[in-house]
Amino acid sequence: MNDLNGKVFFGIDSNAVYPNAKGFFSPSEPYPEYPHEHLADEKKYVYAMIRDGFASLGMDRKHFGTPEWNPLGDIIKPGQSVLIKPNWVIHKNREPQYGDMNCLVTHPSIIRAVLDYVYLALKGRGKITIADAPVQLCNLQELHTKLHYDKIWEFYKTRVLRLMFWIYGDLLRV
């Protein structure tokens, strides 16, 4: 088992930018462990940086570069329930002079990469919940559409998962 206690990875790439939703935030390279057939047409730096982070931390070092590489496999076991907690604070930046939404919410490209590696670790058995408690005035549906989280749900819905969200006590099926 990996001992990640106290380890941190900082990925720095001067060319890196948050990608657009074209290609469902899929990776642009055919990684041996990648559990889906879909690749993006344009470079996806964030996906590569998350993957590099797992590798740099020594996660499943003996299988890196092979189809068996499962960086979260020591932490997540098939059949478990996993919660991914993004930072879905609010659906719009009330202070636009300070920039876009990236200072307020987790970019969907990060969630997509993490979701893929959680899915890989579960090996098709288990439950993934993506949940957050946004501030009271957040329109979560608008946030998902505006930032293109809906592209991730669309991608996974057509491949493997049935997705449901609880929004303010109401079940939303996507």
Short recap of the structure:
This protein has 174 residues and is α+β, with helices and mostly antiparallel strands. Helices cover 25% and strands 9% of the residues. It has a domain at 77-173.
SSE arrangement:
Elements: H1 45-56, E1 81-84, H2 108-122, E2 127-130, H3 140-146, H4 149-157, E3 164-167, E4 170-173
Q: How does this model look, in words?
A:
The structure is a single chain. About 25% of the residues lie in helices and about 10% in strands. It has a domain at about 75-174. The chain has helices spanning about 45-55, 110-120, 140-145, 150-155; strands spanning about 80-85, 125-130, 165, 170-174. Helix 1 crosses helix 2. The longest helix has 15 residues, at about 110-120. The chain is an alpha+beta fold and about 170 residues long.
Contiguous uncertain segments of 5+ residues: 167-171
Query: What is the overall silhouette?
Result: globular
Order of helices and strands: HEHEHHEE
The N- to C-terminal Cα distance equals 36 Å
Return the average pLDDT rounded to an integer: 84
DSSP strand count: 4
* Main sheet overview: 2 strands, parallel
Strand content: 5-15%
